Amino acid sequence: MQIRELTNYLENIAPLQYQEGYDNSGLICGSWDMEIHGVLITLDSTEAIVEEAIQKGCNLIVAHHPIVFKGLKRFNGSNYVERTVIKALKNDIAIYAIHTNLDNVFIKGVNEKIAERLGLQATEILAPKAGVVDPDQPIGAGIIGKLKEPMEEMAFLTFLKNTMQTGCVRYTALRGKPISTVAVCGGSGSFLLRSALKAKADVFITGDFKYHEFFDAEGKLIIADIGHFESEQFTIELLYEIISGKFSNFALHCTEVMTNPIKYL
Asked: Domains in the chain, start-ordered, CATH in brackets?
């Protein structure tokens, strides 16, 4: 089976035209004509991930984050991006990224996976993309939904920390009100704070909030920053479910390498 058959299926779920303008989803290196021997699923592509693919006999890496965002003018191994691509090419390993296009789809998307883990019900897109005419495939950023039962604030934050397996939750002042309506966005979601406020969410869960951005909650909701990697780590599980549900004619592995560059004390 050729790589194009797998990528065509993934792009049927999360079309490349749904990615953001700054993004670089798609086949980063390798050829669509390559026969798949094995697939390694990861959040990030690094030298360690390529080495893992070699050891597991995988010639295709399916990553959430693209290893290349900007044009590379030289390939002399001066940074980890160049070294990762060089190592992949030398070992005939293709790298495919499915990033903001998978973020932006509602069904089988990154945020649906987060909502599923948190047990959210009656979910809908937090910030729908304008001009989408296909009701069967709504797209947009973030998801908002309801907990099955309201939770006390600290109880919810503890539940969030344990469920999302994060070493730290940075949060704004508690409001003394139960948590019922929850907004989520995998990765860097501070741009959706206004949407979460407009939707009257009790808490907004995402990663990468900057110090001054926390003030923008203004006591109207709780911002819960769980970290970029932590918010998206279950995308690996999501991609495994998507691919294994369709194909069974090649070995499929989830990475065993921790690619999160951030450590907690």
From this structure: 3-102 (3.40.1390.30), 105-229 (3.40.1390.30)
